[in-house]
Amino acid sequence: xxxxxxxxxxxxxxxxxxxxxxxxxxxxxxxxxxxxxxxxxxxxxxxxxxxxxxxxxxxxxxxxxxxxxxxxxxxxxxxxxxxxxxxxxxxxxxxxxxxxxxxxxxxxxxxxxxxxxxxxxxxxxxxxxxxxxxxxxxxxxxxxxxxxxxxxxxxxxxxxxxxxxxxxxxxxxxxxxxxxxxxxxxxxxxxxxxxxxxxxxxxxxxxxxxxxxxxxxxxxxx
Length: 222
Fold this sequence. Notes:
About 30% of the residues lie in helices and about 20% in strands. By secondary structure, it is α/β, with parallel strands linked by helices. α2 crosses α3. It is globular, with a radius of gyration of 16 Å. The protein starts with 6 loop residues before the first strand and ends with a helix.
């Protein structure tokens, strides 16, 4: 598929049975989470194909129009107001293309996880809730539910069985903690199986979080 975004691919063995598509945050690129492959305890799991896409570059309003890698435009500090719906939906299609490529390579949707941090987390949720098949899981770090007013009507019936891991820092100075709590509460109210973790950190990851991610991956991919 020549129209796929540029990306990094790492396989833990020669015959991966699982795919994890991991989206980076604003201004970063796919290299940002490559070290997670080494940091996660994957003992006992089948082979995994990690895919780290690079978002396209675009001018970002909140950063004075500076051109950087971004899944969608951010127009102001109040996330959720004046959202870049067109950008979100365009990047959703880009991520769906990776899901389809993995299915074509023999990994079913039920063995594909969408993961992301910050903006990448928003994209994992945006895509995963609307995918027409149940996925293995959504790994949602330091982000939020975008286009939240549309979720109840746009989500697929199949997504209701997709497990969700959400984690957030209580002192996050980029995506406010209360925004993450509201996103969590929305997903729970819609009946999703959600595992929630919060940590004494800002907009980052911590060792305890990595350990919790490892345990969750083993649980949902067992």
